[in-house]
Amino acid sequence: MVESRKQKLTRSEIKYVAKTVLEALTVLHNGGYVHTDIKPDNVLVDYGQAKREGYTVGAPIWRSPELLLGLPWDTSADIWSFSTMIISLIYGDDWHMFDPSNDGVSFDDDEFEFAILKRHHQFLGPFPITYSEIADRDAIALIIHAMDSIPAEKRKPFHLITEREMTKEDNMFLQRIMKLDPRQRPTAKEISEDPWFSDKLGSGR
């Protein structure tokens, strides 16, 4: 998988990787485990980080919004990380959509994790009102602060990404599975049955 940093994978290869990962996640999740650290470097070779639900682990840029907000989480956190991994594989060059270093915020900055949350809003926001059902007052305050920190002209809605960057099919697939509200994310099993995989396991670039 590390080779993806050196050479961009084809759509067919990305779909093969995605299908393989989803099959493994289905087994883990059915057993009550969460992988907790899905990323290109280790997702196919390292299950040592797998935990029962509830342990906060994994590199910040791959973490789901609920993890960054310190809220309860479950297997749906893996679905978020899986989605971010697919985006990174599509773009290649070790690029990560939610990496705040793209905005000049370094890993050792106290605002690093908050900057990731802001990028969640920038590309996939706004956070749905349903978050009020799962978030406490402090988390809601952080969400509001994150949304207020990104003016409308700085928003980069994911669905408006051009086909020069990503195919329409890939974009729509990611929109279906990458939900800010964890309760709205499909399971690994459901994703593995998505029409996205019926396209001859992905043709083209």
Distance between the termini: 17 Å
The helix/strand class is: mainly alpha
Low-pLDDT sequence parts: 44-56, 201-205
- Number of distinct helices: 7
CATH superfamily: Transferase(Phosphotransferase) domain 1
Helix content: 25-40%
What is the overall pLDDT average? 86
Level-1 CATH class name: Mainly Alpha
How many structural domains does the protein architecture include?
1
Strand order of the largest sheet: 1-2
- Topology as H/E string? HEEHHHHHH
Gross morphology: globular
Percent strand equals under 5%
CATH topology label: Transferase(Phosphotransferase), domain 1
- Total strands: 2
What's the Cα radius of gyration? 16 Å
Largest sheet: 2 strands, antiparallel
CATH 2nd-level architecture: Orthogonal Bundle
Keywords:
single chain, 205 residues, mainly alpha, Transferase(Phosphotransferase), domain 1, two-stranded antiparallel ribbon, 7 helices, 2 strands
Word description of this protein:
- The protein has a single domain (2-186), classed as Transferase(Phosphotransferase), domain 1.
- Helices cover 39% and strands 2% of the residues.
- Helix 1 packs antiparallel against helix 3 (76-91) and helix 4 packs across helix 5 (137-148).
- It has helices spanning 11-30, 65-68, 76-91, 112-124, 137-148, 168-177, 188-192, and strands spanning 33-34, 51-52.
- The chain contains seven helices and two strands.
- The protein is mainly α.
- The longest helix has 20 residues, at 11-30.
- It has a two-stranded antiparallel sheet.
